[in-house]
Each structure stands twice: as structure tokens, then as C-alpha cells.
Amino acid sequence: MSQELPKPPIKKKPFSATLGKTFSATLKIVTLIFAVAGFGLISSYVAVYMHWTNTDGIIDRQSDAFWKNSRIVAALSVSNIGATEDIFFNKQNFCLLETVKSSYPGEFRRVIDLALDGKKDLAQKNLDSLIITLDVPSNKILSAIKNSCENNSKFKSVTKKNFEELADMVDSESPFTWANSDEWAFFKESILKDKDVLKKVELETGIKSRVLVSQLMAEQMRLFYSDRPWFKKAIEPLKVLGSMTQFSWGIFGVKPETAAEIENNLKDEKSPFYLGADYQKLLDFKTENVQQERFSRITDYKDHYYSCLYAALYNKQIISQWKNSGFDISSRPEILATLFNIGFAHSKPGADPQVGGSELQIDGEDYSFGRLAYEFYYSGELLSDFPQ
């Protein structure tokens, strides 16, 4: 019987070697995680830089209704009402206002007051906005007008006095969906903190504060509704406007490349967006680190001056481009908002600009960026603080 050889003793690895191996494996895993994260960030940056993430947005389903030939009422084709004798005090408008007065006396009274105060053109634009809003998704307003006006002898002669007799009404809930939301109530309170800043920018650029607020309102509502948990936890308790710091900057969400283009347009005399010598130095930098200074001043959460100034200059440059091409869009808040949303590259002057931009949903109702800004501009909201 053979004798079994003794087994050699098992050599245990020193503790330091085991620890080193574990540390090496952990390091590899951590390095891999950072590599994946880095790749994602770099890919995102390249996508934004190369404009792969850009979108033309949507064309609003009501685009054709926005101020066709500058008068929506003229296109209503209400039969048997008669020709319009006055820019505002006419049979069509009387029927429209009588139709909506019981449901929305607040909006009704505001439009009437503008007209009776001699601002008939502005009253007409406000009425157009109200009818566009109420005439979706069916033709209930048009049907009501026909039912109340056709073959009714009292509409044979309508004068200013008839409108004055309608004017004794009281306020009520707004017909605009967004105006009855918690998000709007928050924005309404927060924007007043920047009233002085907006007025200062208006004096410097000539762009009305209400134009800027209409675009800011659309941008902030888009932000609030795209991430409502974040809004409820991080923004609403602070009572401040949401300021972006990643792919878009500041309260207006201006992209860094757009900000740089706004700056260049101030200097480039050959640019179609050039505003003249008086504006060339308005955005001059104080340091050599241009990128950092640009980021810091637009995203400053304590002072929104530069965020508002960049937005105002964008609007002014767009207006200048269109005016030089023979088209004046300075009184078209829905078009200015659409162009603000979709960027310089898509600003192509023409006789029939369309309303649209990013699509967003507020309390179950779909909006385009341009339509939302338009509705605010011609609503009665914040009218005393930011007049039309």
C-alpha cells in the first residue's frame, strides 16, 4: 500500500494584496461609470452645439384665425347683420359682446371700457383674442351670434349708445384656462418682483414690457408644466421665477448660442438684425472670460436684468429684420413669441407669418408657445402693471 504524500501547506494571500485587488476592481467600476456619464454629457453637448436637438415646433391649429387681414370679425361672415360702419361700434361686435357678456362679464367689461375710452383699435384686438379663445373647438359663438342677430329688427341700427348700455357689468372667472391655474397665480405674484427691471429694459430698448412678459409667461408655464414635481418642491415655495442653467439659460431660457448671436448682431453692420451704432456697446463684456461672464449675468437668480435685456434685444432685432423686408410685426405679439421660441434661423420675413412654436399642455388643453403668449397679451391679466 503506497504512502500518501503530504499536501503542501496552503499559502494565504496577505490582507494587503486582497485589499488592493478589491480597490482595483472598485476603481475600474467607478471609472466605467464616469466614462458612461461623461459620454452622455459630451453627446448632449455635441447634439445641442450641432443643433440636432432644435425643433421647428408646431403650427398652431388656430394660426389662420390670428388677425387675418387684421380683423377677425371681418371674417366671421355673419349673415343679415349688415356692413360694418365703425371700427368697433358696429353690429357684428354688438352681437359678439352680447353673446359673451353673461358668461364672462369681466372680459366683456374690459373690452367695452377700452372702446368707450377711445381705444377702439385696441378694443378690437382684445375682442378678437377673446372670440378666438371661445370659438374652440366648435362654432358655438358663431351659432349664438346668428341666433341672436338674424332677423332681429333691433340690430338695424347700432350706435355707440347701444354699447354704453351694455357696460354696467361685474367681474367673473377668466375664460382663459391658464388664468385659473395655480401655476398662473404663482407666476402672477413672482413677475411683479421684476416690474422695475422690465420697465428699465423697456426704456433702453423700446420693447414693451407686456411683450416680454407674454413670452416669459409662456416659457415659465412650459417649464412649470414640463416638470410639475420640481415646480412644487423647488420653485413654488421660494416664490421666484424658474431660472435655467443647463442647455438654456435664465428665466427666458435663452440658449448660449442664441445669446452669442444677439451680441454679434449688435456689432455686425452687415447683419440683417443690426440695430445701429446706439446699441453696439449695450452688451459689452467687462472681463476677458466672455463665456463665463455671459453665463453668470444671464443666469443671475438675484438680478434678472440681463436675462430680460437679451430677450428684449432679440425681439428688437427680429422686428428690425422684418421691417427692413417690408413687414411690420411690432404689434403682433403672437408672431414675436413664435419667433422668440423657434430662433433666428427660422425667422423668415413674409406677408403671412404663422403662429406656433413649442407645444405644451395646461390643465388638459393644448397650446402652442405663440398662442399662449397671445392669449396673455390680450387678456385683462396684469394689465395695470404691464399695459398693452
How is the topology of this model organized?
Blueprint: H1 15-49, E1 58-59, H2 91-100, H3 105-116, H4 120-134, H5 140-149, H6 160-166, H7 182-191, H8 195-205, H9 209-226, H10 228-235, E2 244-245, E3 249-250, H11 256-267, H12 290-298, H13 305-324, H14 333-342, E4 356-357, E5 359-362, E6 365-368, H15 369-377
Antiparallel strand pairs: 1-4, 2-3, 5-6
In short:
With 388 residues, the chain is mainly alpha-helical.
Description:
With 388 residues, the protein is mostly helical. The chain folds into two domains: 102 residues, no CATH class; 202 residues, no CATH class. Helix content is 51%, strand content 4%. It contains 15 helices and six strands. It has a two-stranded antiparallel ribbon. A two-stranded antiparallel ribbon has the order 2-3. Helix 2 crosses helix 5, helix 9 packs across helix 15 and helix 14 packs antiparallel against helix 15. The longest helix has 35 residues. About 6% of the residues have low confidence.
